[in-house]
Structure formats: C-alpha cells, structure tokens
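User: Predict the structure for this protein chain, please.
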Amino acid sequence: MSHSHDGAVLELHDVGVRYGDREALRNVTFSVRAGELIGVIGPNGAGKSTLFKAICGLVNHSGEVDVNGVHCHDRVDRMDVAYIPQRSEADLLFPITVGELVMAGRRRFRSWHQRTTAADRAAAIEALAAVNLSGYEARSLSELSGGQLQRAYIARALTQEASVVLLDEALSGVDQPTTIELFDLFATLSKSGTTFLFATHDLALARHRFDRLIAVNGTIQGDGSPEQVLAPAVLDSTFGSGASSSQGGG
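Assistant: Here is the predicted structure, written as structure tokens:
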C-alpha cells in the first residue's frame, strides 16, 4: 500500500458536503499522522458528524479523502477507518452479542461465504482483552453499560485493524471514572499507532485530554494546540459571539 507524503495516515483536501440546498461543510483541509489523538470541537449542527461520515464514505462529498495514501473518493468500503457513532444512534434493540459485534470487524479479511477462522477468533479475544471485556462474548449489547458499549465498539475497531478511529460524542452519558479509563485506553492504543479523532462539545475534556484540537463550524475554524484553539477569538468564531466567556471553562 502506498504511503502519502509527510507520513500522513489521513488527509482531507477541500472536502465539502451538501444536504440538498444546505452546505453542511466547505473547504475542509487537514492531515493527521499515525498515533495522533485529536479532539474535534464545535457546537451541535457544526458539521462534526458530517465530517466523520464524509471520511468514512457514508455521505457524498466533494474534495479528496486519502487514507494511508490511497485516494478513496470513489471507494465506499473504507475499512481502514472505524466509525463509532453516538450511543443514541446505536440500535440496542437489535439482538446482537458482544462477540458478534467484535467479530464483525473481521469481515474485511474474508469474502462473505468464508467462515470465521482461528485467526479471527484469536483477534476477537485479544481485542476484548485490550478493552477489558474478556468473557463478555455472549452478552447482548442491550445488557451493557454506556462505557462497556463504547469499549465493545472500540474492540470491533481493533479487530478491523482500522488505522483511524472516529468517535462521535462517544462518551455522552458515560461516567467520569469510565471516561478516564477509556482515555487511558486511547492513549495506549495511540502509542501503538492507532489514530483517534474524537468529536466533543466538552471543552474541559478537550483542554486536558488532547495535544491537538480541530475546531469545526461549517469549515475549519482552528487547528493546533489546545492553547491555540481554545483562545477567545477561535472560540467566538466556532461557537458564536460571547462563547469564549461562557464556554471557555475547564
């Protein structure tokens, strides 16, 4: 597989998304290196979810998305990217077990008619151990707590061997101890080369948990260190006038 310049695992150039007459995103350009843990901030409706769906190929977009140096504007199957949506979007009524969810990540490695292999099962066991869910294979997703559910989705991303994991407000409703535990997991995985983009509107979390922040509202409003992106001028352009005084806590 070819690798893009500057060792970027993910590159976006002039990406835009329209929903009918409405322009949801425009002129989005940035690149991400392997192992980065990046916070994506912005108000509700700013385009954070749309950005993630464009990266995954879940919505039509203009511009270019390259993953591991492969231009994938025309590819629907972007298995190098794992998308973990908001909890409310997950259909918990669907009768699927943790083991089935995690094993679904292995589909990219075999054709539809092939049975799961010993290697697939070993990968699933290893991924569940990495997220502290060993022995949960037979549990239904509906039985899990919020934090356990997010860990199960992360295990699926690990079995998928995704280079980039996109978490869309993934810790909404998850308690503080579990949040800390999950960020310790993200830090460990990022050291081994997995890249994380984490959409959040929690600016205290953004300030303390990421080395790099990208501020989005229709387009990129800021991209840099927390000190740069949480500066009053950037917050005002991202969240609206006066946001720096009301939102800038933490």
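Residues 1-5, 245-250 have pLDDT under 50 and may be disordered.
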